[in-house]
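Task card 7
Instruction: Convert sequence to C-alpha cells.
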Amino acid sequence: MNVNVDAAAAARELMAARRAIPTPPPSLDRGLRVVIFFMAWAFVVLLGVVIGGAVGSGPGASVGLVAGLFAGVFFATWASQVVRVAAQWERAVLLRLGRFKSVKGPGVIFVFPVVDNVQLVDTRLLTLPIPHQQVITRDNVPVTIDGALFFEVRDPGKAVVSVQDYRSAIMQYAQASLRDVAGQMSLDELLSERDKIQAQIANVVESRSTAWGIHVEAIRLLDINMPEDLKRMMSRQASAEREKRATITKAEGDREAALNLAAAAETMAKSPGAMQLRTLQSLDGLGSSPSNTVVLAVPVEVLELAKVLNLKKLETAAST
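Output:
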C-alpha cells in the first residue's frame, strides 16, 4: 500500500515538474511563410494558365488552371519551408539528413525542406522553478525545500545534440543535487548558511551541465518549510534564549549598580560635607513639586554634634 502511495506521489511530482517547464515562444517566421506560400501558389497557377493557353486555346487554359491549382499547393508548401527567421535571442541548430551541420542566426535562414531540419534554441537567461523537494537533513529532520534555477544556453549545438530535452534534464539534475546537498547539512546549517548551500548546488549542477553547453547562473532557495511541531519547539527555544539574555542583562545591571553605590558610599564617608550636600540634593528633589511638603525635625548641625560626641565617647572608652 505504501509503495503504491509513494509511486503515485512521485508521478504527481513528475507531472507538476513537467508542467512547470515553460513552453518555448512561437516562431517569428509564421507571417513570412504565409506570404511566401500564397505568392508561390499564385505564381504556379499563373504559370499553369499561361502554359495551358499556349498549348491549347480555350480548353488548354482551363486544364492549365486546374493543374496549376493542385500543383501550386505542393510547390507553395515546399517553398514556404525554405525561409526561416530566428529572433535576436534565438539560434537555429541545422541538421542535414540527420547529421549536425551548423548553428545559424539570428535573422533570415535558408534551409532545404525534407533534407534539413531546424530547431530554434533560446539563448536568453532562462528561469525554471524547482518544485517542493522532500529532504531529510543530517540530524534527521524532514524539511520541504523549493527554489529557482537560472541558466542560459552557451552552446546550442551541444544542448540539442547531447541531451534529449535540456530544460527537463537540467531541472531534474538540479532537483537531485538540491536533495543531495541539503541532505548532508544539519537543520541549523540549512537555515543559517543558505548562501553557501546555494553556491554548492550551483557548482554541482554546473560541473555536469557544461557538457550540455549550458551555463548555470545561479540557484536560489525560495522557501524552507518544517513541520509545525518543530516550528513551535524552535519558537519556545528562541523565547527561552531571549529570557535568558534578559535575566543576565538585569543581573549585570544590578551588579554594576551595587558597585557604583558602594563606591559612592566610600567617597561620602571620606568627605565630611558630602552627606550634607546629598541631603540638600534630596530635599531639592522632593521640593520640586508643589504638592510635597518637607518638615525637618532635627537640624543637620545636631546630627553632626551627636556624631562628634559619639567619637569622643569612643576615645574615652578606649583610653580607659
